[in-house]
Amino acid sequence: MADIATQLAEVVGANHVITDPAVMEPYLVDWTRRYRGDARCVVRPGSTDEVASVLRMCSAAGVPVVVQGGNTGLVGGAIPGEGLPVVLSTRRLDWIGDVDQRAGQLSAGAGATLGAVQRAAASAGWVYGVDLAGRDSATIGGTVATNAGGIHVVAFGMTRAQVVGIEAVLADGIVLSHLSGLLKDNTGLDLGALLCGSEGTLAVITAVRVRLHRPVGATTVALIGSPSYADAVDLVQTAVVPGARVIGAEVVDDTGMRLVEGVIGQPYPLSERHPLVVLLEVADGGTGEGFTGLEDRDVVVGIDAGERARLWRYREAQADAFALLGVLHKLDVSVPLSALPACAEELCGVLGADAGITEFGIFGHIGDGNLHVEFAGPDADDYRMDREVLECVARHGGSVSAEHGIGRAKVDYLELSRTRAEINAMRAIKTAWDPQGILNPGVLFSE
Q1: pLDDT, tens digit, for every residue of 23-34?
Q2: Which has the least CB within 10 A, 1, 123, 261, 444?
């Protein structure tokens, strides 16, 4: 019998089956450079039918399949693990349909980038509610598989709130297609919602239908110096005029500000340095009147599009700035807003007291309690401080994963956020959908 790569080439074409190790390399290492694997080959199907054929072949051969979109995750969820799997890249599934003006919806292939979907929506007079710094690399299918968050969760919600239809292929090649986009459809379980956050363990998402939003109008951005996380949390409420809609609410610590200044080529934006800088964007018609009570604060305000974009760079370039430190430990967590100040202060103490940590920073989405904890120093495979951080978050009632999922990196920590009964229920669903366990083995659940 021909090897699996040869069989797959008969379905997708030889040009779309990669076996050369040098060409495969970008598919085998994640964005953080902390997780790496090996694979039999990379296959790049160009249609749902081709995905179905690939999965039928792999299922018949008992070969595991790792699904990969833009490979922008932080937890190794799209990187091959044990068993020498096939990497199934969805990047060729990059079609984008016309905007349905009556429904305010759009359908797209799983490989379309988030940025392309945003631009398609904007060209038709709409807004897609999910946005993040990796918009031009992250794929729409990947953002659904991980239930991505980003900078506009305070305004529009997580990715799950945007999905109104989905198409996916089960491990045995059976296609599930429900892209009608009906907002009222109580005909049983919402399989699309179930696939959101499933991290490729239940099926391969091939297309998504998403809801769009009317533009919020002109906005104003403010960068505000803050002395503490408690003050930063309060600013989201106290600094915004009642009735004004908050579009973004972010926080960056002084480490992040120091690192990012060189990356973006811009000086520190405020008159004096502060422990934290809070970024707020509000929909106020671009008048600058969406804020209140800032007369005695160190603040800079951006009204026109260029100035708003300049101020956002201090937040959006954080990942690039920290990446200059080398291989990083990047932990994406969430904490109840009531507990966030105490948790963040405790984390600063824990990280600051460890002699092996050369640099650390805490930044993120202060409006929804999502913090990104990044530190350099420990080896890539040294998880001691990762556990301390995640245990601290759990003690404060938080989640060990806010946006990027569990992947491979956080499998051992899932019980910090989910009960054994919940994990068993999720395993039962996985077994029912993928009896052979060939889809993303080792992701979300331990073997």
Answers
A1: 999 999 987 788
A2: 1
* CATH number of the domain enclosing 405: 3.30.70.2740
The domain that holds 268 is classified in CATH as: 3.30.70.2190
Domain count, the chain: 4
Half-sphere exposure in the Cβ direction for 209 (13 Å, CA):
19
Query: Residue 362 sits in which domain range?
Result: 325-421
CA distance linking residue 42 with residue 44, whole number of Å? 7
* Separation CA 289–CA 283 (nearest Å): 10
Helices of type H across 30-139: 48-61, 114-123
Residue 10 falls inside a structural domain: yes
Closest CA to 181 of 159, 162, 165: 165
> In angstroms, rounded to a whole number, what is the distance separating the alpha carbons of residues 359 and 346?
16
Q: Does one domain contain both 81 and 114?
A: no
State both tokens at 102.
């009556």
Amino acid at site 57 = M
CATH number for 8: 3.30.43.10
**Neighbour tally for 208: CB within 10 Å:** 30
| Residue with the larger pLDDT of the pair 2 and 391 | 391
pLDDT at 2: 65
* Side-chain-side CA neighbours of residue 223 (13 Å): 23
Q: Express each pLDDT in 292-344 by its tens digit.
A: 999 999 999 999 999 999 999 999 999 999 989 988 999 999 999 999 999 99
Pairwise CA distance, residues 144 & 125, whole Å: 23
Tokens of 365: 């989405």
Q: Do residues 238 and 212 make contact, with C-beta atoms less than 8 angstroms apart?
A: no
Residues in the chain: 447
CA-to-CA distance for 441 and 65, rounded, in angstroms? 8
Maximum pairwise Cα distance, the chain: 76
- Judge whether residue 394 has pLDDT over 50: yes
C-alpha closest to that of 201 among 38, 437, 446: 437
- Same domain? 417 vs 329: yes
> Cβ distance 392 to 376 under 8 Å?
no
Contacts (Cβ under 8 Å, ≥6 apart) of 73 = 30, 31, 142, 146, 404, 405, 407
Q: Can you give the pTM of this predicted structure?
A: 0.93
Asked if 207 and 227 sit in the same domain, the reply is no
Which CATH number do you get for residue 172? 3.30.465.10
Domain contains 225: yes
